[in-house]
Amino acid sequence: MPKKTPTAPTGFVAIDFGTSNSAVALPAGEGVRLVALEAGQPTMPTAVFYRADTPTQQFEAERLYGRAAVAAYVEGMDGRLMRSMKSILGSSLLDQGTDIGAGRSVRYRDVVVGYLRHLRRSAEAEAGCELPRVVLGRPVFFVDDDPARDAQAQAALEAAARSVGFAEVQFQFEPIAAALDYEARAPREQLVLVSDIGGGTSDFSLVRVGPARRGRVERRDDILASHGVHLAGTDFDRHVELAAILPLLGYRSLRPARPGEPAREVPSGVYFDLATWHLINTVYAPSRVAELRAMKTWYADPRHHARLMATVQERLGHALAAAAEQAKIDVAQQGHAEIDLGALEARLTATLAGAQAAAAIEADVERIVQAARETARIAGVAPEAVDALYFTGGSTGLAPLVDRIAAGFPGAERLRGDRFASVAQGLGQHARVVFG
């Protein structure tokens, strides 16, 4: 009897590679299940920590992922924390190298590749087989108003997926995936506006869902419109940091007055970089530190310059950014936040009031609200005809933002998915259809 030729493995997986958090889904029975990525948790922070104390004979620096990566950074381990890697796709930074300590450097592209490889290995360990096919989520726009860079970003993500061993790569819009997750429970046919507001993008899709539509491979006709803006949680954090924390380091402070000249603000570029996760480490370059040190006489209040120098010399930029993120969460939950900046200066604190936080993010919130309304306009659907609003993504925890969006669709039922897992579950449903 002739020997059978082994067939290639046909397993598949779905990956939600998010700006702030990631999740992975595998098929399970007639549905999907989420992979326990870390400590039994189905979601994991999109974070990588490169250890600077890796022995020099090792070609690559040892890496920690997710919560372990953030914990290593918070505990002061020597190394480099990388977050918001998704925001680099489509930018000129992708092929640039960055210092990770102990004389090593890594390309940003390779950071993305390493993180995807970790997600694939975690999924294969749980599945017990190879998973050569993947559905990856993507925002409606990686880059606003620039189709060429948007296509470049998707191509970069696909190339990263193939380099870690995925032979077949499919994409699905993240808000569409969230709609598919909702559809698994939809009691009847409905017109649903999906609002997927995460760490890096706010995406909207107006979708027809319902029991009779489940399982269709081609859903193009059910997607009436998709729209989005490259604004979300990390942008809110940035504005909070600029409003509440960085003024203590001299942001928007005035230089000493000169005879016959009005006082001018100190340069703001360093503060914008300190408030942007993937640019923070650029401030630590020796040439940049020397430039900032030479600006001491530009500061009317010497405490501002001293705090700025302490931040760059002790590499506290990510700690300040994390403090801003926590302050945003505290304001959403309590109406105000007390920000402990003792790591920068003994007994130093900042206060963030609800009204101050609202004012800081107002312009971004309004753009997001208008993007939701524009989605219905593009679809040619009156706001009153929308049956339901389905909210997912970490930033939908901000009640004022959700309320503002909902106000534009007065007749719609307000529904919430799992803020961090709905997209992954919907991507898994889509993977079952396209690969199943």
What does this entry look like structurally?
The protein is of the alpha+beta class and 436 residues long. The chain folds into three domains: 12-172 and 428-435, ATPase, nucleotide binding domain (Nucleotidyltransferase, domain 5, 2-Layer Sandwich); 187-209 and 218-232 and 362-416, ATPase, nucleotide binding domain (Nucleotidyltransferase, domain 5); 234-359, no CATH class. Helices cover 37% and strands 22% of the residues. It contains twelve helices and 18 strands. The chain has helices at 66-74, 108-127, 147-163, 174-183, 233-245, 269-274, 286-293, 302-313, 317-334, 354-379, 399-407, 422-435; strands spanning 12-17, 21-28, 31-34, 43-45, 47-51, 63-65, 79-83, 97-101, 104-107, 133-138, 168-173, 190-197, 202-209, 223-229, 336-340, 349-353, 388-392, 413-416. Strands 1, 2, 3, 4, 10 and 11 form a six-stranded mixed β-sheet that branches. The chain has a five-stranded mixed β-sheet with strand order 14-13-12-17-18, with helices on both faces. Strands 6-5-7 form a three-stranded antiparallel β-sheet, with helices on both faces. Strand 8 (97-101) and strand 9 form a beta hairpin. The longest helix has 26 residues, at 354-379. The protein starts with 11 loop residues before the first strand and ends with a helix.
- CATH third-tier fold name of the largest domain: Nucleotidyltransferase, domain 5
CATH class of the largest domain: Alpha Beta
Mean pLDDT: 90
Structural class: alpha+beta
The string of secondary-structure elements, in order, is EEEEEEHEEEHEHEHEEEHHHHHEEHEHEH
Shape: globular
